[in-house]
Design goal:
Layout: H1 9-20, H2 27-43, H3 51-62, H4 67-86, H5 92-99, H6 114-125, H7 128-138, E1 141-145, H8 152-163, H9 168-171, E2 172-178, H10 181-193, E3 198-202, E4 223-225, H11 232-256, E5 263-264, E6 269-270, H12 271-281, E7 282-283, E8 293-294, H13 308-311
Parallel strand pairs: 1-2, 2-3
Antiparallel strand pairs: 3-4, 5-6, 7-8
Helix pairs in contact: 1-4, 2-3, 2-10, 6-8, 11-12
Length: 314
């Protein structure tokens, strides 16, 4: 094995299994296939919009491998899960990636050690009082890393929020992007296993940056949504955002006419009718102060639970 020596039993177990899979293929190819398969298995359990094309991609990756090798990949996944179960706040895959000397020299890949990421995240998150005030005002705090690598900075941010007594699984949105498909999938795996809500996008942050509302994403097959992002809480937050946009639209319509006319020239639809439409899709909240739930029509007639972000462009 090239690179640094493993530091603990979990790393030793992982590398032992990994080395057994590398006969006849390059180490980087085996690593890339492992993280791609692992990530596709996770995302296909929750994101049904791109299920078919991602399932085909998964089958193309597994095709060259024998049954016993596939069992080895399953053991790698199990070891990763167990390692993060023991110590959630660590860059397990990123650390192994560098220890196995798999970094891409041509793109200048070098993963920042986790303890440094932890310190930087604490500085960025700020003090507990201001963070909790932000969460109370907006319902969540959003974090973005446009060059996410294996996700160490985001994991450090989750740890910083946890240390402040903030439930990052309910009150934070983690958004990341990386030009390297393999390391982006490493970040997706680790943040998904930590229960972080959000998504990872594969792409160039300089020429093709992420845009739009943080609660939605672009819905493309290059954007991988984490399982926790489909929880009831974030579904309600997305529906509330849609409702606010509709109300803002109504306000703009009324301001357009100096006589406060009840007609919108662009949409050619009476304001009374638009208001009626809003009232029909809005279900009053059961408790005062909670956002209303909006019933969204399902895409192409399919029951896509938790897919509000794909039905509206916000």
């Amino acid at each position: 094995m090239k690179g640094l020596s493993p530091r603990n039993e979990d790393e030793r177990e992982f590398i032992k299994i990994f080395d057994s899979l590398c006969y006849g293929q390059s180490r980087y190819q085996v690593w890339a296939d492992f993280v791609h398969m692992f990530a596709l298995s996770i995302v296909n359990a929750v994101d049904k919009v791109h299920f078919e094309e991602r399932e085909k991609r998964y089958l193309r990756i597994v095709k060259p491998y024998k049954k016993e090798q596939m069992e080895g990949f399953a053991q790698l996944a199990r070891t990763t899960v167990m390692a993060l179960e023991k110590n959630p706040f660590q860059d397990f895959l990123g650390d192994l990636y560098m220890r196995c000397d798999l970094g891409n020299e041509h793109t200048g890949q070098f993963f920042t050690p986790y303890h440094i990421c932890e310190l930087m995240a604490q500085c960025i998150i700020g003090n507990e009082e201001s963070t909790k005030a932000h969460v109370e005002k907006y319902g969540y705090i959003s974090l973005c890393d446009p060059c996410i690598g294996g996700g160490a900075m985001m994991i450090g941010a989750a740890q910083a929020l946890h240390s402040q007594g903030i439930n990052y699984q309910q009150c934070a949105v983690f958004v990341g992007q990386d030009i390297d498909y393999t390391v982006a999938m490493m970040a997706y795996i680790q943040l998904s296993l930590l229960g972080c809500p959000g998504y990872i996008r594969v792409g160039n942050s300089l020429t093709d940056p992420m845009t739009g509302h943080v609660l939605f994403g672009d819905g493309k097959d290059t954007t991988f949504y984490m399982p926790m992002f489909f929880s009831e809480r974030f579904e309600i937050l997305r529906q509330a955002a849609i409702f606010r946009k509709l109300l803002c639209s109504m306000g703009e319509i009324e301001k357009k006419s100096p006589e406060n006319a009840k007609f919108d020239e662009k949409q050619q639809k009476p304001v009374e009718e638009q208001q009626k439409t809003i009232e029909e899709i809005a279900i009053p909240a059961e408790e005062p102060g909670t956002p209303p739930i909006i019933e969204i029509s399902k895409k192409k007639g399919k029951a896509l639970v938790g897919q509000t972000m794909f039905d509206f462009g916000i």
